[in-house]
Amino acid sequence: MTEVENLPRLSIASLGGTASMQADASGRGVTPSLDCERQLASLPHLREMAHLEVATLCLVPSASLSFVMLLDVLAWARAEIEGGSQAVILTQGTDTLEETAYFFNLLWPFDAPLVLTGAMRPPSQPGSDGPANLLAATQVALAHASRGRGALVVINDQIHCATRVRKTASLSMAAFESPGSGPVGELVEGLAVYRQPPCPRRVLPLPERVGHRVALLEACLDADTTLLQAVAAFGFEGLVISGFGAGHVSSAWSDVLGELAAKLPVIVATRTGSGTTARATYGFAGAEIDLQSKGVHMAGQLCPRKCRILLWLLLGTGQQSSLCTWLRH
């Protein structure tokens, strides 16, 4: 058997995003237009690293992705692994990269890596980072040390776990961090170097229903309770609050959240961007002790956006009763 025939099989798909964007003649900015094959055109040596299975699953800015679309992407990725691929790489926009990575991580049942990447600069701009990030994603995906880690985000030569990664800057090339823990690894001369071995993972089954909705609202100074009071009436089946500080709300919000918690799951996370919610420190109305006494769940280290994804999937699989154990996970 020749060396080429010994190459591993790697599946790469594009969902769109900045890495796929070009400007048209209108001069109105870049939009998704490059399919996956054209994104790979500047990286011919990837085909010396692996047999590539290439697909363009959609070409949209990542803000327009939906849970249903992601389930279709997941079905494709699962079929690729079951068909013999060693790993899967997805390229997409960075605006929702932290959310889609966490969504996939909760549903990815394989030891094979699922690696997500994107770009902060489109291909038409000097210093475009898309090709470098795609090369790094390939190096991570093919590394044996990447197995058993679920979904990974590879960008700017750093490797982030899906649970912790956050987009913390709007336009900076160094836009992604994992607050409180840092990246789990990095690329060093083309090698994936991890700081610790993989941890045991917990995976959800595919959701049995997809039509349910979970609301996400942010606490802010002097906010009234009108929207809160409408959540149940509008048919939402869950609620996540992006709360002040260590997971706090006003006393007026606390009263309404207590009423809602008797009808549907309610989570309070922190809006700060780093750190955990408290559990037993503050005793005022609207603080964590008060909220928990009313049946509200504290998010711990999980950010508000990822809390919404977790709750949506738990509701879709009928496992909302296990929410507490997932928030401690």
From TrEMBL:
The entry lists its GO molecular-function terms as: asparaginase activity
Q: Does the keyword Nucleotidyltransferase apply?
A: no
Q: Which GO terms describe its biological process?
A: asparagine metabolic process
Every L-asparaginase N-terminal domain range: 10-196
Keywords, sorted A to Z = Hydrolase
Source taxon at top rank: Bacteria
> Do you know which SMART domains this protein is assigned to?
Asparaginase (SM00870)
Matching SUPFAM superfamilies: Glutaminase/Asparaginase
Q: Could you say which residues bind substrate here?
A: S62, T94, D95
- CDD domains associated with the record: L-asparaginase_II (cd08964)
| One protein family per Pfam | Asparaginase_C
Asparaginase/glutaminase C-terminal domain sequence ranges: 213-320
Q: Can the keyword Hydrolase be found in this entry's annotation?
A: yes
Q: Which residues does the Swiss-Prot or TrEMBL record annotate as the active site?
A: T18 (o-isoaspartyl threonine intermediate)
The cross-references to PROSITE patterns, in alphabetical order and at most eight, read: ASN_GLN_ASE_3
InterPro entries associated with the record: AsnASE_II (IPR004550), Asp/glu_Ase-like_sf (IPR036152), Asparaginase/glutaminase-like (IPR006034), Asparaginase_C (IPR040919), L-asparaginase_C (IPR027473), L-asparaginase_N (IPR027474), L-asparaginase_N_sf (IPR037152)
**Family designation:** Belongs to the asparaginase 1 family.
Which protein, by its recorded name, is this?
Asparaginase
Q: Which organism is it from?
A: Pseudomonas putida (Arthrobacter siderocapsulatus)
